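Lab notebook, bench 4. Still working through the backlog of constructs that have no structural model yet. Next entry is a single chain of 209 residues. Request: give me the structure tokens for it.
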Amino acid sequence: MDKDKTVNETCETAEVNKSEEVDIKDEGAQDNQENQENQKSSEATGQETEVSENSEIESLKASLEEKTKRCDEYKDMLQRLAAEFDNYKKRTAREKEALYFDALSDVVSEFLPVIDNIERAINACKSENSQESMLEGIELINRQVKETLKKLGVEQIDCVGKRFDPNLHEAVMHIEDDTYEQNVVVEEFQKGYIFKDKVIRHSIVKVAN
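Model written out:
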């Protein structure tokens, strides 16, 4: 019986060892399969990363090309604007010069008849010694000058008897006189002229009180 027991124990031990060997082989095979799967997963991840990087690079290239294209468009636009502005300045300068010439021509053409009468008066003074005729000629010229200025929109500043206005008058003398109100212009030394709201020359005046 001891022999049978020993044989049985030996058989059981052999079966256990064999089972352990099978388990070890299975575990080794499973580890090997897991390693292979991890390697494949790593390779797939690497491929996906490379694809992602390539896609990002292509996206950056496309974005750079688009921005470069826009920069070129803005540069062309700026160059066109600069050229148009330069042409505008030249055109404006020409128009301004033409306007000045037209305005000057209009003013001179208005005064040409006055110059003609001055020349006639001078010739008359040479041939005649009459002071009366000279006076008439000068008064005629004076009236003609005033009419010409009025046509051009230039008016004489009315000041005598008016309250002193520093925007229109320039006081060079003050007097104390109870017959006048305070700060009133009593005498004009030099006439002033105004065009619309712009004073061409202030009236030189004497102011009372």
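Notes after review: The mean pLDDT is 81. The radius of gyration is 56 Å. Flag for follow-up if needed.
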